[in-house]
Amino acid sequence: MSRPQEPHRPFLSFGNPFRMISPKGSYLSPKLLALLNTFEETLAGRIKKLKPEGREDVLRLSWMRFAMETLCGIHTDIKSLITALELPVCDWDEKWIDVYLDNSVKLLDICIAFSSEISRLKQGHLFLQCVLHNLGGASSKQFVRARSSLDGWRQHIASKNPRLDNCFCVMDGLVQTLDLPKIKNSSKGKVLMRAMYGVKVVTLLVCSIFAATFSGSAKRLIDLKVPETYLWAEAFADLQTFVNTESRSICSSGSVTVLKELEAVDSGVKKLYPIVQDGADPVEAEVLQDSTSDLGESSEKLSQGLDLLAKEVDRFFQIVLTGRDALLCNLRIGGNISDQVRANKNVEGPTVR
């Protein structure tokens, strides 16, 4: 049974951030302009490479892993830019610090939610291993065990992860912070805020796609409208339109799963289940063997893909965490850290095994 078409979220526009952070009459030195252009050109290149080659690559673990690798690269780029700007933390406006710390803890929460879902999917692999083990023999008792494991896998995959619901709320909060603080007297600050806008927009898009993939619903996909003044705006719009359109199409198809590797496993389970349920006669023995082999191959691809994705999510978590820790450390050295900032220091790490 197909699901009703889910409504599209409206494009979210926040005025013209370029005008907001580079008001009329402002001036950027050739050095600052070169740093900004280099950052934005690099960001545009990363976004272009992130666009899947074809429809079949959307919502696939290999693409999701590359997307997380791209986020790691982008967040590393912003760290390098901050260093090149030679803008000491003591010169940061308090509003910038508040936004940075708030955004970073939200990103850490999102990583934890994704890690939790990856861990849950990996636990489902245990059911499949039991199925394959029991189908190695031909006794009726083993068939009963295999059927029980198949039922267990179906129930496990159909269950929901409450952390993902919280993830959507966190992303909504990040969207609200795209309205950047106004910069008045700092050219370096304008460059920093403009670059951070790009980082946040791309991060939000990727996280939105991940959440839609894991939840099987495109209802909460985010559409962001970026002003054309950014060198990466066209590449971003192209990526967002392509991936969001395909994601909505896949999610509205009525499938239990939308992740491609998980869908392949589910298809194998559906082929195998009737044979295991009724018992395989001599005529179906070859069909059973082929179906078991196919399920083993698809489940192994899923498991390996989840392992690789988990590593990239954890790497992204560590990049965000170390950047946050570095800022907090510099604030302490400068004697400019509040009790509230200290309270935000303790963050739970992702737990993917």
Provide a descriptive summary of the structure in words.
This protein is mainly α and 353 residues long. It has one domain (14-319). The protein is built from eleven helices and two strands; from the N terminus they run E-H-H-H-H-H-H-H-E-H-H-H-H. Strands 1-2 form a two-stranded parallel ribbon. Helix 2 packs antiparallel against helix 3, helix 5 packs antiparallel against helix 9 and helix 9 (260-278) runs antiparallel to helix 10 (285-333). Residues 1-25 and 336-346 have low confidence and may be disordered. This is Protein BPS1, chloroplastic-like. It comes from Sesamum indicum. InterPro entries: BPS1_pln.
Low-confidence stretches: 1-25, 336-346
Choose one word for the global shape: elongated
Order of helices and strands: EHHHHHHHEHHHH
Helix content: 55-70%
What structural class do you assign from the helix and strand content? Answer: mainly alpha
Query: What count of structural domains?
Result: 1
- Give me the side-by-side strand order of the main sheet: 1-2
The N- to C-terminal Cα distance equals 35 Å
- What does the main sheet amount to? 2 strands, parallel
The assembly state of the depicted protein chains is single chain
